[in-house]
Design a protein that fits this description.
This protein is mainly alpha-helical. It contains ten helices and no strands.
Amino acid sequence: MKHEDVDEILNRALRGPHDVKSEVLHRIADSLKVSFAPVRPLPSSIVLTAVVFFVCVAVAIAGAARAGFFGFAKMHLMERWIIFGLLGALAWAAARSFVHAMIPGTRRHITAARLLGWSCVALVGLFGLLFRDYETHQFFRLGIACLATGLLYAVPAALFSWLLLRRGFAVNMVTAGLSAGLLGGLAGIGMLELHCPNFEAAHVLVWHIAVAPISSAVGAGMGWLLHLRRASRQ
């Protein structure tokens, strides 16, 4: 087939009869106008990241205010700056990852799974350097209590963040759930660092840090369930 043949086919289609009546077209246009309601645009990604980040910080501080700032009071000034500086940086990165997961087409510099891995490595390295008490007293009893407390505060941090971004659309629900879980897990770890006065290295390295991967796994699992629910509706 030559170019002239294609042009002839297109020109013939344009010259062909139009069976659709103008009244039908007007009815279609009127029905579309009814459904086109104005939509309030989402704030910028940096604003959403800041809001979600401060929700995470607020949950951690509120939990410590309720239980007591015993861990914070026991730390030296330099330890406070280093620990909460790192937790703040990781929480900001997790908040940004979650916001990007809820906005289709946003460029991501690091995957949520990789961010989880780097967060755990950074926390293990920092806590391993700062906490040098290698004794273990009531390792499982005290550890499980701290783990449960951290997860208890990870849930509202992740849930409130998800509600704030509910107008977005997660293309990959598992990634979005993992990001929300990581953000909540970092809020839980922040609460534990503010509250827990147990500075035994094994306790902090195992039970405090475990809040992040467990919370992330739960978030990813919830995202997978929501993905299945969305697929069943389609």
